[in-house]
Amino acid sequence: MNVARYISHKIDGGADSGSFTSSVTKIAIISIAMGLGVMIVSFAILQGFRHEIQGKIFSFGAHLQVSRYDTNNSLEVAPIGGPSVEKRLHQFSQVKTVQAYAYKTAIIKTPDEVLGVVVKGIDEREGQSPMRQNLVAGEFLHFPADSASTDVLLSRKMANKLNLKVGSEALFYFIQNPPRIRRFRVSGIYQTGLDEFDEAYVVGDIRQIRELNAWPDSLVGGLEVVLKDFKRLDRTADQLYEALPYDLKIDKITEQYAQLFDWLQLLNRNVIIFLLLIIFVATFNMVATIFIMILERTNMIGVLKALGATDNQIRQMFFFRGLSLTVRGMLIGNAVGLGFCAIQYFFKVIPLDPENYYMDRVPIFWDFKVLLVLNVATFGTTLLAILIPTYLISRIKPVVAIKFD
């Protein structure tokens, strides 16, 4: 039988519920529980924001965009040969999917309103478009096998400005020589919450743009590349650049929307600082709790030393006491943090203003690796904090301690 653990258990079970030590231990448990719970919720929300916003950005631009070099700043650039470039891109192991796109500026005219937009033509030859995740009403584009689709997706902002709804038809005026007019049907409405997209882009069939530009099926405006690992974006972009023809360029999504990615990075720094402060407070409370326990049990320490107990045995006794408090606090903290995240994830009880936060509710992302790291970090730092005050035991003299009042 471990004597130190046995005595620690007796102290734990026999503490007076009204004593000062009992109150302090409750505060220590609460501080660990609240600290860990807040860290779990903070990281879940931070990762949720990151994945939601990155998902919205990637749905419009993927990770990398391959297009032809152009001296002007127009969205309508010279086309590239899609199949040949796609074949080169698929030779790289980091490339997951490659999808063709093309842009065309247009003016939408309804009986009451006029609005300038950019029509983005897409196809789904390599799988479903990530734009599907942004659909909030209606249906996604239908791609007939024998002709170009006349369906388009409008953002909710555009639909409200133009007084259009699912099933409505509108005229699109394409400014070119000669000018072209097309009638499209609104098959669905999307919403990203990002003004960069919602105020500018209409999504349609790339074959419509090919017909307007008199391109053959082999030409596209550019290619969007989705990687298997976004963290290897820079390295993969450099490798692709070296392998592609000299007249093609590669644009990274992190550079195209640098302000959004900088904002996410700033959020990450703020949360890390906040979490360090929480860990400091929790460990400081544990140090104070063990100090108080030692002071209140000074007589007992003196008696145990007089009976032959070593400093290490008594130190283990208080270590096991602190370990018990830590485990209880962590169990409560996990229950509180994961419970809050589950309620928000399934029931979406906390809403957000999409105009300011790019989404309509607080997002939650489940990352069990981060959860494990938080628990291990809390457990490790707290145990180290427990060891600090136990070294006071070696300075307690039995004769003085027995007389201590």
UniProtKB/TrEMBL annotation:
Domain ABC3 transporter permease C-terminal as annotated: residue spans: 272-398
InterPro entries, per database record: ABC3_permease_C, Lipoprotein-release_system, MacB_PCD
One Gene Ontology term, aspect cellular component: plasma membrane protein complex
Signal peptide: none
GO biological process: lipoprotein localization to outer membrane
Sequence ranges assigned to domain MacB-like periplasmic core in this UniProt record: 27-240
Its membrane topology: Multi-pass membrane protein
Protein name listed in UniProt: ABC transporter permease
Family: Belongs to the ABC-4 integral membrane protein family. LolC/E subfamily.
Compartments where located: Cell membrane
Keywords, alphabetical: Cell membrane, Membrane, Transmembrane, Transmembrane helix
Keyword Transmembrane attached: yes
Transmembrane feature ranges: 27-49, 271-295, 325-350, 370-393
Protein source organism: Hymenobacter nivis
